[in-house]
Amino acid sequence: MDDNEEKQGIPSSSKGSKHLLVLFGIWLIFTATVLIIGLPIVRESIRQSGVLTLLKGATETPRNHQQTKIWFYSSDGSLREYKQEQVKQGGSVYHDTFESLLSGPKLQALKEGAISSIDPKTSLQGLTLSNKVLYIDLSKHFLESENLKRAYEQLRRTGKGFPQIKDIVLLIEGERATLSPDL
Predict the structure, then answer these.
(1) N or C: which end of the chain has fewer CB within 10 A?
(2) DSSP per residue over the chain, as a string?
(3) Of 125, 78, 123, which is closest to residue 100 (Cα–Cα)?
(4) What pTM value is reported for the model?
(5) Alpha-carbon distance 134 to 46, whole Å?
(6) How far apart are CA 101 and CA 140, in angstroms?
(7) Contact, 101 vs 79, CB < 8 A?
(8) What does the pLDDT look like over 123-180, one tens digit per residue?
(9) How far apart are CA 25 and CA 27, in angstroms?
């Protein structure tokens, strides 16, 4: 090192290297300490939050769940198909699909503007498939739907979403529904 560098306080290259090495060592020890202490806490927080389950669920459907295609009205008034995850009830896929329809739009469908025209108190009394005709037996609350035509259309479209169903017959409390002819 020459006199000029020494007067300006510039360290010699071997002294500078030692300082950098010490700083790097301190940084390395600090980082390792933070990881050793913080990593288990962060892992436990992530596990408890359930975010990994949500992320995993976004890519696969659990065995006791199934994807159903259900028709709801969108906020612009058009009828469109929404996919919803449904817990398998142990019955047929038709039964589970209509249970999902009657329970209304799930959160994702609601975010997309889905609206059901079926009265929320409506319950599924029974469901039978015979000769490609699906007989849907609903509680009398279905008749309390604000717009019966739209409610019926949701049932019809959801039912006809299955290739093996050619038509649906609506029953109310076990009796064939007598709805207005314009339905």
Answers:
(1) N
(2) --HHHHHTTPPPHHHHHHHHHHHHHHHHHHHHHHHHHHHHHHHHHHHHHTHHHHHHHHH---TTEEEEEEEEE-TTS-EEEEEEEEE--SS-HHHHHHHHHHH---HHHHHTT-B--S-TT--EEEEEEETTEEEEEE-GGGGG-S-HHHHHHHHHHHHTTSTT--EEEEEETTEE----TT-
(3) 123
(4) 0.61
(5) 45
(6) 16
(7) no
(8) 999 999 999 999 999 999 999 998 999 999 999 999 998 888 999 999 999 888 887 6
(9) 5
Rounded Cα distance between 18 and 112, Å, is: 61
**Token pair belonging to 20:** 């950098």
CA 57 – CA 59 distance, rounded (Å): 5
Token duo for residue 149: 């035509």
- Domain boundaries of the chain, sorted by first residue: 3-51, 61-176
How many Å is the Cα radius of gyration of the chain? 32
| Side chain identity, residue 125 | Q
Predicted confidence at residue 117, as pLDDT, reads 92
Contacts of 129 (CB under 8 A, 6+ apart): 92, 94, 135, 164, 165
Tokens 């790097």 belong to 24
Strand-strand pairing, 167-172 and 79-87: unpaired
Q: Is the separation of the CB atoms in 164 and 130 below 8 Å?
A: no
